[in-house]
Amino acid sequence: MSPDARTSLPSTRSLARKGATTNGGMMNSATQVHPTAVGTVPGTSALARVSSRSMFGKTLHDNRRVFTVWALATGLLAMAYASFYPQLSAEPAASVPEAMRGFGLDDTASAAGYLQGAVFGLLVPLLATFYGAATGARMISSDEESGYLDLLLAHPIGRARLVLHRFAALAVGAVVIAAAVLVAVLAVRGSAHLDSISVANFAAQAVNLALLAVFFGALATAVGAATGKSRATVFGVTAGLGVLGYVLNGFAPQLGAEWSRHLTPFHHYLGGEPLRYGFEPTGPLVLAAATAVLLGAGILRFARRDLGR
């Protein structure tokens, strides 16, 4: 072959370089045209993050403002009522209506008697009941009602784990509320002449308060998980049972049915009179055992039923 012919033909090395350049350009173009090939399905990134981290932590984070509001409201209410003791302690017990004595208002002269009736026997336990009912209704029923629960369980989050993690967050909220009440009454302990009650006895009462809120939280969570009813229905049923138990515990002695008080959680919450005698294990153990039974029954049913039914 002549020298001119050799120079007019492209060399093998130059062809290889052009081919590599052409192929690389095609690959780069393909990558640029189809960027979603290495991405995620839109709308699932949040759920993926949920499945990769603790459901307990996420529930706490999502409800932090709710827990704070409940704690502040209950604590301030307890502080306000406790502050009235110096004025109301002068009222004789005979001036208390007979119908109200079953609620612990039969001894307003002593600090323990006044607090047991006016603070820890009236509005504070009702607020704890409503906290448990409202928060428990949100744990499962709210997400099932909105359809979010189906998307959540499509990820590797077991049903039992979901319930337990969310209920644990509810229990933390109950402890925060009880701690807020404890701090509130201790803050006015000196000025309200409540020094006759030890800090340990106040703490024992706060433990019982937390367990009462946890009990009704377990009831609401179990009803929602087991039945699939709406959030409003679950709250209504739980709160209604709570008010019924509260009234029964208060009026049972006047109806000649003292025995029926033992069927209510309020008797085990307040019956041991922790403000007078300190921590008494029977009541807290009954509340804890009942909570475990309710939660276990709800999880068993939730694991077997079809969602949305």
TrEMBL record:
<feature type="compositionally biased region" description="Polar residues">
    <location>
        <begin position="8"/>
        <end position="34"/>
    </location>
</feature>
<feature type="transmembrane region" description="Helical">
    <location>
        <begin position="167"/>
        <end position="190"/>
    </location>
</feature>
<feature type="transmembrane region" description="Helical">
    <location>
        <begin position="285"/>
        <end position="303"/>
    </location>
</feature>
<protein>
    <submittedName>
        <fullName>ABC-2 type transport system permease protein</fullName>
    </submittedName>
</protein>
<dbReference type="GO" id="GO:0005886">
    <property type="term" value="C:plasma membrane"/>
</dbReference>
<keyword id="KW-0812">Transmembrane</keyword>
<keyword id="KW-1133">Transmembrane helix</keyword>
<dbReference type="Pfam" id="PF12679">
    <property type="entry name" value="ABC2_membrane_2"/>
</dbReference>
<feature type="transmembrane region" description="Helical">
    <location>
        <begin position="66"/>
        <end position="85"/>
    </location>
</feature>
<feature type="transmembrane region" description="Helical">
    <location>
        <begin position="232"/>
        <end position="252"/>
    </location>
</feature>
<feature type="transmembrane region" description="Helical">
    <location>
        <begin position="114"/>
        <end position="134"/>
    </location>
</feature>
<feature type="transmembrane region" description="Helical">
    <location>
        <begin position="202"/>
        <end position="225"/>
    </location>
</feature>
<dbReference type="GO" id="GO:0140359">
    <property type="term" value="F:ABC-type transporter activity"/>
</dbReference>
<keyword id="KW-0472">Membrane</keyword>
<feature type="region of interest" description="Disordered">
    <location>
        <begin position="1"/>
        <end position="38"/>
    </location>
</feature>
